[in-house]
Design brief:
Region (Lon-protease-like): 356-478
Pfam family, one: AAA_25
Shape: globular
Strand order of the largest sheet: 8-7-9-10-6-11-12-13-14
Number of domains: 3
CATH class of the largest domain: Alpha Beta
Domain RecA family profile: 70-220
CATH architecture of the largest domain: 3-Layer(aba) Sandwich
Number of helices: 11
Strand content: 25-35%
Number of strands: 23
Family: Belongs to the RecA family. RadA subfamily.
InterPro entries: AAA+_ATPase (IPR003593), DNA_repair_RadA (IPR004504), P-loop_NTPase (IPR027417), RecA_ATP-bd (IPR020588), Ribosomal_Su5_D2-typ_SF (IPR020568), Ribsml_uS5_D2-typ_fold_subgr (IPR014721), Rubredoxin_2 (IPR041166)
């Protein structure tokens, strides 16, 4: 018989200790260890569902040969959501959706469930945070009250699974949220590591046996990570992150893990009075309202999965009165900015060590690919020299530590998107897509010093543009 004893579990990483500690040795978190009661031993697990037997059950074994079919998918009715999931929900799959509070997770799932219900599919929405009347109020505000979506306000996992098993299996079941669920097989409070893991395991087992696609909504911590044990992210089939700044009106749905599709696709939504609206052309949204005559702005032709995106890079370089100048970055990797600054000083012939540098990706989008190096460098040189970059020009390319401009992937797709939005020129690495795309001309670069020379020559302030030149005092205008 399993032995019942007290254990102490870290609520951040799931580490288990035999006594209480103030700091977790695994994740260095303070006051995250909570006492929990559970069963341990070889037979530990769901107590009420575990059969009493002395021998194991014999199951059938299959070989590698056999018919392989494409996993059937259920379209959600929202194109941007289908893009991220890889074409729709796979039957029997489990998706973990995380995001900041108030970012729009429940709104997106309500719209997806209503769209699927209108196609005749059975959709169940289980809320552990709101009453049924509150969910109806949101649906009425979004104009979705006529959709045949089944609602319930319940937190007991066993009751939820038993209810969903009645009648025709649902095509989609939404659990909002997994941190509010609890199972009778675990003696701990809802939201703890043990409860989250046990509840998720029960729901995953139901999804695999019934063929129902299950979406688990997860809260996030202060640093943006999904709260609870990381083992849940390994148990589910896909992990999606709903990102965005509440100061901006658009949201980004990004796939972090996907067993049935790509992990580098994004879906773009715009928050409106009637809920989330799809953005079929996000480049036009990110470039809306940009100032063409302001120095320090460059348009970057980036890629998010298979989707090209054009976004504005804003830079401000100002003389610093501090002993250690500031480096502030929003939407890009600060370490990458430090590298670009070092390359510009060492191989571009310009001096930035006595200036404050502020970098911002307009619109709140986060960029991770190194192809943005060239656009960032162009914006920095433009702000330092006071030269305005041509408004009809896009930039993309990776900068090496030697100052060489290195080629990047999917250059034709970037050029095609720039041409579609009315741009006439692209500054890019040499050797990829030279010659342009139709009416788009290209300027191929080998070294960062070539771009610095071209920008600095048009600026009101003097900037050294060649390697080996002594950096002048560019605090005064010529």
């Amino acid at each position: 018989m399993a032995k019942i004893h007290q254990t102490f579990v870290c609520q951040s990483c799931g580490a288990v200790y035999n006594r209480w500690r103030g700091r977790c040795e695994a994740c260095n978190g303070w006051n995250t260890i909570v006492e929990e009661t559970g069963a341990t031993g070889p037979q530990a697990g769901p107590v009420k569902t575990r059969p009493s037997r002395a021998r194991g059950r014999v199951f059938a074994l299959e070989g590698l040969t056999g018919e392989v079919k494409e996993a059937p998918r259920i379209p959600s009715g929202i194109n941007e959501l289908d893009r991220v999931t890889g074409g729709g929900f796979v039957r029997g799959s489990v998706i973990l959706l995380g995001g900041d509070p108030g970012i729009g997770k429940s709104t997106l799932l309500m719209q997806a469930s209503a769209a699927m219900a209108r196609t005749g599919e059975r959709v169940v929405y289980i809320s552990g945070e709101e009453a049924v009347a509150q969910v109806r109020l949101r649906a009425e505000r979004l104009g979705l009250s006529s959709a045949q979506v089944e609602l319930a306000a319940e937190t007991n996992v066993e009751d939820i699974v038993e209810t969903l098993s009645q009648g025709r299996p649902p095509a989609l079941a939404i659990i909002d949220s997994i941190q509010t669920m609890w199972t009778e097989t675990v003696e701990s409070a809802p939201g703890t590591v043990t409860q989250v893991r046990g509840s998720a395991q029960t729901l995953i087992r139901f999804a695999k046996t019934s063929g129902t696609a299950v979406i688990l909504v997860g809260h996030v911590t202060k640093d943006g990570q999904i709260a609870g044990p990381r083992v849940v992210e390994h148990m589910v089939d896909a992990v999606a992150s709903f990102e965005g700044d509440q100061g901006h009106h658009f949201r980004i749905l990004r796939a972090v893990k996907n067993r049935f599709g790509p992990t580098d696709e994004i879906g773009v939504f715009e928050m409106t009075d009637m809920g989330l609206a799809e953005v079929p052309n996000p480049s036009a949204l990110f470039l809306a309202g940009r100032d063409h005559a302001a120095p320090g702005t460059a348009v970057f032709a980036g890629m998010e999965g298979t989707r090209p995106l054009l976004v504005e890079i804003q830079a401000l370089v100002a003389p610093s009165s501090l002993g250690m100048p500031r480096r502030a970055v929003v939407g890009w990797d600060p370490n990458r900015l430090s590298m670009v600054l070092a390359v510009l000083e060492a191989h571009g012939g310009i001096r930035l060590g006595t200036h404050d540098v502020y970098l911002n990706v307009a619109g709140g989008l986060r960029i991770s690919e190194p192809a943005a190096d060239l656009a960032v460098a162009a914006a920095l040189v433009s702000s330092l020299s006071g030269a305005t970059l041509p408004p009809e020009t896009v930039y993309f390319g990776e900068i090496g530590l030697s100052g060489a401009v290195r080629p990047v992937a999917q250059a034709p797709a970037r050029l095609k998107e720039a041409l579609k939005l009315g741009f006439a020129k692209a500054v890019m690495p040499q050797g990829r897509g030279e010659g342009g795309d139709g009416g788009l001309t290209t300027e191929a670069l080998r070294h960062i010093a070539d771009m610095v020379a071209g920008i600095a020559s048009n600026g009101p302030r003097r900037v050294a543009s060649r390697r080996g030149h002594n950096p002048p005092d560019y605090g005064d205008d010529d």
